[in-house]
Amino acid sequence: MTDAWWSQPCPSPDVAAAQSAHARQGVLTKPPGSLGMLEDIAVWYAARQGSERPRVERVWISVFAADHGVAAEGVSAFPQAVTGEMVRNFIGGGAAISVLARAVGAALDVVHLGTVNDPGAIAGVHRAVIAPSTANFCDDAAMTSAQVAAAMQVGAERVALALDADADLFIGGEMGIANTTAATALACALLEESPDALAGAGTGLDDAGIAHKRAVVRRALSRHADAIDTLERLRRLGGFEIAALAGAYIAAAQARIPVLVDGFIATVAALVAVRLNAGVRDWLLFAHRSHERGHARVLAALDARPLLDLGMRLGEASGAAMAVPLLRMACALHRDMATFEQAGVSQA
Prior knowledge:
The chain has helices spanning 15-25, 37-49, 81-92, 96-104, 145-164, 179-191, 195-198, 207-223, 230-237, 240-254, 264-276, 295-301, 318-336, 340-343; strands spanning 59-66, 107-114, 125-127, 169-175, 259-261, 284-286. It is an alpha/beta fold and 348 residues long.
């Protein structure tokens, strides 16, 4: 499937705009480098917007919800019915990401890809049901090839809406009971790591629960050991929402929309996206380091330097939403600070 849309090239960042922004940083009324990563963010954003003075004003958040067959193995502290219930909570305004999206003035797009506890048609929720759940990957491949392609296409379609809304930033979130297990299995396969190194507490498992999750992931990896390419590993071990996120990240990069990646599951989806299309990496910023055990290893594989470390492990795009004000402040400082010449301040 090398001719699939997700393999089409991504544009390169604007080197001239980055150079111009870097030069501006050097004449603002501060010691060079004194704003640390905030300076780097502003220059990074300048290259993606093709402007010496970038802005982060219109933020689009798509949250993809889907269920996982591996939940039957008892790998979550919460019942599977929660996924469908949370779809209603997202659009009803009661979820963490709902609160955070309001706080930062972001558009919140809720996408239902398929849940066992189907809440039905809900005003404001985009219904793109692929199946009630993936298959249990301990017994079979999680998805068919058609399901993977459909999920990735849904992600791309949500990015098209973000582009129509002139979004300056795309954020993807996820909800799905047992999706930490799926993300762990997929990360283990992509990084050739042991479940002992990557499997964590997810929704709040105790030590016995984590040990059981590791055993389940080990079984899955053994069953699907013959899957050697990224797309096939995604099909065998992933989920609808993970595939949708990967598709969204690729489509955003192809459309020149900067992406702010959330926590562990979103970062595994980003790893899939980059493995499928290396040019995507230039368009990704990483919001935070999750408390989930495997996140640091996946971040390292992407050579990613997260902006925040708050011990979060909720998902939903909550960590990424928390980082939006940081991006805005970085750009505001870069754009609105006076130069030494403007302020009549002596330089070093």
